[in-house]
């Protein structure tokens, strides 16, 4: 599980506790937040320590990290985005910011932030059933 900016792995404490109680072995990554490349490398190091199939979960900026960390990783079976950035191939945070000018919150899952434009391309690609929780990539 990968946190967003201005957070650390402890933000997943309650989630990891509940998942362990259900018999899972969750790992909360601690990316250095120095660069996307360093963050991806940290998550890939974490993936290498896990046995079996991997589900990556990203919150906010963590969505960018898991999307990039999953590329070329055969054991990653799915990605889950929690109010997170869901970049297309080669897309950057700046690309999403330009697509959503004037937003005070760039998380595509945030419905409380006003937007001066209606971006229907984003809705059809990311919110086809009204929720962001259904988008899974492999």
Question: How much is the average pLDDT?
Answer: 76
N-to-C series of helices and strands: HHEHEHH
By DSSP, the count of extended strands is 2
Determine the oligomeric state from the structure. Answer: single chain
Strand arrangement across the biggest beta sheet: 1-2
General shape: globular
Q: Helicity range of the residues?
A: 25-40%
Number of helices: 5
State which percent range the strand residues make up. 5-15%
Compute the gyration radius: what is it? 15 Å
Give the termini separation.
16 Å
Major sheet: 2 strands, parallel
Low-pLDDT sequence parts: 104-138
**Pairing-aware structural class of the strands and helices?**
alpha+beta
Summarize the structure.
The chain has about 140 residues and is an alpha+beta fold. Helix content is about 35%, strand content about 10%.
Write the layout of secondary structure elements.
Elements: H1 13-21, H2 36-48, E1 54-59, H3 62-70, E2 76-82, H4 93-99, H5 120-126
Parallel strand pairs: 1-2
Written account of the structure:
The protein contains five helices and two strands; from the N terminus they run H-H-E-H-E-H-H. The protein is an alpha+beta fold and 138 residues long. Helix 3 links the parallel strand 1 (54-59) and strand 2 (76-82). The longest helix has 13 residues, at 36-48. It is globular, with a radius of gyration of 15 Å.
Key descriptive features of the protein:
138 residues, alpha+beta, 5 helices, 9% strand, globular, disordered C terminus
């Amino acid at each position: 599980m990968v946190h967003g900016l201005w957070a650390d792995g402890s933000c997943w404490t309650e989630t990891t506790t509940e998942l362990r109680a259900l018999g899972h072995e969750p790992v909360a990554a601690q990316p250095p937040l120095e660069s996307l490349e360093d963050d991806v490398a940290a998550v890939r190091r974490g993936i290498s320590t896990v046995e079996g199939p991997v589900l990556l979960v990203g919150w906010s900026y963590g969505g960018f990290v898991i999307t990039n960390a999953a590329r070329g990783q055969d054991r990653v079976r799915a990605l889950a985005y929690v109010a997170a950035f869901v970049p297309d191939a080669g897309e950057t945070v700046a690309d999403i910011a330009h697509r959503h000018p004037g937003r005070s919150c760039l998380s595509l899952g945030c419905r409380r932030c006003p937007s001066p434009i209606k971006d229907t391309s984003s809705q059809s690609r990311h919110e086809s059933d009204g929720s962001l929780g259904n988008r899974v990539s492999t």
